[in-house]
Design goal:
- It is a single chain.
- The chain has five helices and 43 strands.
- It is mainly β.
- It has three domains: about 325 residues, Beta-galactosidase, Chain A, domain 5, CATH 2.70.98.10; about 110 residues, Carboxypeptidase-like, regulatory domain (Immunoglobulin-like); about 170 residues, Jelly Rolls (Sandwich).
- The strands form eleven sheets. The protein has a nine-stranded antiparallel beta sheet.
- Strand 19 and strand 20 form a beta hairpin.
- The longest helix is centred in the N-terminal third of the chain and has 19 residues.
- The protein is globular.
């Protein structure tokens, strides 16, 4: 009987697939009802509120997928969401940009354009929000043109995102990646929970995950490396997914971590994320700036089970990537494919200390980091990790360092490269890409920075703490509170004997009590042997991938203070259950005479600890002589 039922379900979805995956028979419709406008095709029906400029209804197979709060754009004028939250201007103009009655029902697009009116409580930017539906689209595209003009006051953009609050009566299963896929706690479970050390973390007292702590940051991911994420329904066999066909408009390059969604059936798309070190984009008074966000795709599908729908969504993401840039977008700030350029070449590694350099996962990209307006609010060095005003273009190179970057907007760039296994990054300025160009830049030699012969290393330079203890399941609230039990005498790591996957913690946290008060700051020790008395200059190289506010590290060699890291980038990783933020590289030089024959000790003392959130994450450590 069970086998018969299973075959019956499979047959049902085979029939659905035949009808669903064919081309639509009917044209796109646009119906203006005064306060609302409806876009529809054979698959979906989208209702837009003119007054609130949001999607108030999204139906797929006549099933309502949206909850009470709808789908809307959200702008926060600071990286701290509790401050400087401004409203959109009151002046908004509705228009039909693509009229389906004039293209045989192939496509419709409507626009809600907010125009800054001088209100001090409003964001001083013009925002043209657009919603697009094609005849064969199983979902809706969202895009927006942001403009800051001469005459507009200064402005900070901390968070830029789309928020979709879905129908909790339909969706119960959330997927980010292969490690984070499960039936989720309900809204009531969260409301009945007991708040932990941050407002977003709640100990569940009811539901299927009773006894666990639910924390929305546990679903954060590197957006450029996550093809799609979304919600599915166990009972209704439908799904709704977020797809970014390109990441050119997302801040922070391929390592930027962003929120994807969380309990209460929330689906997110952060194109400007201030979390995990993303920071804010700062605009001066009278600064001229335009940026086109999207189009990104909210995709609807159906399937036998959650796996089936996820695989289908991944396939759709690949399809959308191949279609980029979309030929139906009419906007001067969105060049057509023939107006964009291509850059190809090869990054060759030449390290005199390591004749055969092993690397993997090499990223090569173009970013605009040479202009003054690319500097972050925190006066950080000009760096693609913090850049979000302009567009970035990144691809993965092959195992030999060959790369081809397509669809580049015409402009002047710096080319960057980084790879797992190599400390640091490659860069070359003054790369000019013109409209329609196809440039082969040839072989570029990357000589990784060295201060001398490597004596030892801890970890893998990969811009994360994934290889250390708990790094393989970091998306779990409160791992830092296990530290006093697991390392009662702090970390004591012996080169050649210790195993960094077990003996080096993923974070260096303050030791806290049950009320989250700081008891003490940790001191980590590295023990290593020297065959002889050293001469010359020694350099301890620290790659740090997570820190908080004023956190710093003092370095002691055989109990002599030899250097300080200084204030590190604020990327707030540990308390958001992360494994990576922005990468800081620090070189501590000291007289090698301090290294004696026999056993030596380097101590790493966490300083400037103000509260329990001031934890540090190491990516990699290396001693050179």
């Amino acid at each position: 009987m069970e086998m018969y039922t299973h075959l019956k379900v499979k047959l049902l979805f085979l029939i659905l697939s035949i009808s669903t995956f064919g081309f639509a028979q009917n044209p796109v419709k646009l119906i203006d009802q005064g306060n609302f406008v409806i876009l529809s095709n054979d698959y979906v029906q989208i209702t837009l509120s003119k007054k609130k400029t949001l999607i108030s209804s999204l139906k797929y197979k006549d099933l309502e997928l949206i909850g009470r709060q709808h789908i809307n754009w959200n702008i926060v004028s600071s990286d701290e969401e509790e401050s400087k939250v401004r409203k959109l201007s009151q002046k908004v103009v509705y228009s039909v940009r693509i009229d389906p009655s004039k293209n045989n029902g192939e496509r419709a697009e409507v626009s809600f354009k907010y125009i800054y009116d001088g209100n001090e409580q409003a964001n001083p930017v013009d925002i043209d929000m657009r919603y697009t539906l094609g005849k064969n689209d199983k979902g809706v595209y969202l895009s927006a043109l942001f403009t800051h003009r001469a005459g507009y006051p200064e402005f900070e953009l901390g968070q830029g995102r789309m928020i979709a609050e879905l129908n909790p009566e339909v969706f119960d299963f959330y997927t980010v990646d292969s490690n984070r896929r499960r039936i989720m706690a309900s809204e009531n479970d969260v409301k009945n929970g007991i708040r932990r050390n941050v407002k977003e973390a709640n100990l569940l007292t009811t539901g299927i995950h009773k006894g666990e702590v639910e924390h929305k940051y546990d679903y954060a991911a590197m957006l450029a490396q996550t093809p799609t994420w979304g919600w599915t329904s166990t009972a209704k066999h439908v799904g709704i997914w977020m797809i970014n066909p390109s990441h050119e408009y997302i801040n922070g390059g391929p390592t930027q971590v962003g929120l994807t969604g969380h309990v209460e059936c929330v689906l997110l798309n952060h194109w400007q994320d201030g979390h995990y070190g993303g920071g804010t984009q700062v605009f001066k008074k009278d600064e001229n700036w335009e940026k086109f966000i999207g189009p990104f795709f909210i995709y609807c599908n159906s399937g036998i089970n959650h796996d089936d729908m996820w695989k289908d969504a991944i396939g759709e993401a690949k399809k959308q990537q191949q279609l980029w840039p979309f030929n139906w977008v009419v906007e001067k700030e969105y060049p057509k494919k023939q107006e964009r350029g291509v850059l190809s070449g090869q990054i060759q590694i030449s390290d005199p200390y390591v004749p055969v350099t092993k690397f993997s996962n090499m990223w090569v990209g173009l970013a605009n980091t040479t202009n003054e307006d690319a500097i972050s609010k925190d006066k950080a060095p000009i760096n693609w990790q913090f850049e979000g005003k302009h567009y970035q273009f990144w691809v993965k190179a092959d195992q030999k360092g060959n790369f081809t970057i397509p669809n580049i907007r015409a402009g002047k760039y710096t080319i960057f490269a980084f790879a797992d296994g190599i400390l640091g990054e490659f860069s070359k300025t003054d790369i000019t890409v013109s409209q329609g160009s196809n440039i082969n830049i040839g072989k570029l030699t990357w000589t990784p920075l060295r201060y001398g012969k490597q004596l030892w290393e801890i970890g893998i330079p990969d811009r994360s703490a994934a290889e250390f203890r708990h790094g393989d399941h970091y998306w779990q609230w409160g791992l830092y509170m296990l530290y006093p039990k697991e390392f009662p005498n702090d970390v004591n790591f012996t080169i050649g004997k210790s195993d960094w996957s077990k003996d080096w913690n993923y974070c260096q946290p303050p030791v806290i009590d049950s009320a989250y008060n700081v008891v003490r700051s940790p001191v980590w020790s590295v023990f290593f042997d020297m065959p002889d008395q050293a001469k010359g200059t020694a350099t301890l190289r620290l790659a740090i991938c997570g820190s908080r506010n004023q956190t710093a590290v003092n370095v002691l060699v055989n109990d002599v203070l030899v250097g300080k890291t200084g204030i590190l980038t604020n990327s707030g990783v540990m308390h958001r259950d992360g494994i990576r933020g922005k990468e800081d590289e620090i070189a501590i030089h000291f007289d090698a005479k301090l290294l004696k024959k026999g056993t030596n000790t380097i101590k790493l003392k966490l300083t400037n600890v103000k509260n329990w959130t001031f934890g540090l994450l190491y990516d990699y450590l290396r001693l050179e002589l």
